[in-house]
Amino acid sequence: MLRIVGDTAIAQTVDFFTPIVDDPYLFGQIAAANSISDIYAMGATPILGLAIAGFPTDKLPLDVLTEILRGGADKAAEAGFAVAGGHTIIDDVPKYGLAVTGIVSAEKLVRNSTGRAGDVLFLTKPIGNGILVNAHRTWQQRNVSSEPLLDEATRWMTMLNRDAARVMVSVGVDAATDVTGYGLIGHLLEMCEGAGVGATIRASDVPVLAGAREFLALGFCSGGTKRNAKNFRERVELRVPDSEFDLFCDAQTSGGLLIAVAPERAAALASAFDESGLFYAKIGTMTADRGRITVEA
């Protein structure tokens, strides 16, 4: 965040990655939604985007790149801003994302490091899309009889966190982040360490995409998820099976907002989500157990 005049500040973020779906237009939409998400997590409004792309011109027709860029531009337009340019290089595999600028009231900026013990934790999208994407890519190689369906996962991945962020800002919350590559556990640990608190998650309250648990049990798990599970295990007390920990470490793409709200405002936040017709789940609380997470049934 950089204050530019009076109470007005700018927020800046950048993200890009390789395709996770076969459809180039859909990939562009997902990548753009993912890139914008950090702006929403700060309570900011996106106003400008710049595209970042790598493309193998000797392997794929330029029509593929055109569709990726179109998908990203359409998603940015849905968010209310234009992609005003960018930069593309020749690369071995396609890569795409956005650098996004947003504006925010400096006094209303939502940080990921200001949660407090006792805060109620809300999550605004189900987890598990990393498992389903990995299964969709590799199910035939493992002789699995049924193809994992991505329709529901892609619906969530292309969904902007805009409306959830508006509700969050209108009610007033203590902290927030978006759930992406470090999974639910990793991003919650980041919030806890920044604020000097801990957290308890109720596994039964965490929303999970249909099929994610089943395909995880069949061994479908990305390298990023495995690294998350290895790196975060010592800071988590498990009162559930290890498979639940792996699920909560699943590396997400364009995941939901993870919000910490004071207990006296939790009912107001839930009511505002309900009135707006938005999805949410209350998944736990922040505690005084600094830097540690407990996952209970």
Protein model, in words:
There is one protein chain. This protein has 297 residues and is of the alpha+beta class. It folds into 2 domains: 2-105, 60s Ribosomal Protein L30, Chain: A; 120-296, Phosphoribosyl-aminoimidazole Synthetase, Chain A, domain 2 (Alpha-Beta Complex). 38% of the residues lie in helices and 26% in strands. The protein contains 10 helices and 12 strands. The protein has helices at residues 24-41, 62-79, 129-138, 151-157, 162-171, 183-195, 212-217, 223-232, 242-248, 263-276; strands at residues 2-5, 8-17, 45-55, 82-90, 95-105, 120-123, 175-178, 198-202, 236-238, 257-261, 281-287, 293-296. It has a 7-stranded mixed sheet, sandwiched between helices. It has a 5-stranded mixed sheet with strand order 1-2-5-3-4, covered by helices on one side. The longest helix is centred in the N-terminal third of the chain and has 18 residues, at 24-41. The two termini are 38 Å apart. The mean pLDDT is 96.
